[in-house]
Amino acid sequence: MESNKKGKTYEELYGPEKAKELKKNLSVKFSKKYVGENNPFFGKHHSLETKHKFHKIRAGKTYEEIYGTEKAELIKNKLKKEKRPTNYFTEYDEVFYCSENRQVILKEQNYLCAICLQKLGYKFKKNLHHINYIKKDNRRKNLIYLCVGCHVTTNGNREFWKGYLRGLNREINRTKKLSRKINYRIEKSLKLEFRQMIISRRV
After folding, report:
1. pTM higher than 0.85
2. Residues 101 and 190 in one domain
């Protein structure tokens, strides 16, 4: 015999007031029980496949849709506190962020991803990457085009990617061309799983 409670929310079962109280008690209980080393996920990390799945699920949704109104408000307040002042960059220039100048960057890179050298174009998904990971810094020397896969890869090991992509961008700005003959130090510096992903995209 199926329970009448199945598939129903706390609000539907107990009303909004009691539901709020129950949720609060549960959160306190679980936060005490599963904090730090008691958490079964302690010391573990999501695989790249799982991260891709999370990204697909959350893409195009607001904080409210993902986390609910209360948690969304907390996240927004936290982001506001961490926000840098608008005059942080003396050389701040948004001219290279417009569509015409994006085409200039693509042309300088020969329509190739700067990391795996995969062809980029109208039909291929591509991301304009900020080398120092600060979205407001739209100077030409801070912008480089990557394929979607490599853009995800640059979220880890950020110090390596900052140094590597800065050097690569200097080379592109100097010669106005991304060459397939550029000496890559990726193979020596990255973990095996990341190297394999990049090499597979080059083939």
Report:
1. no
2. yes
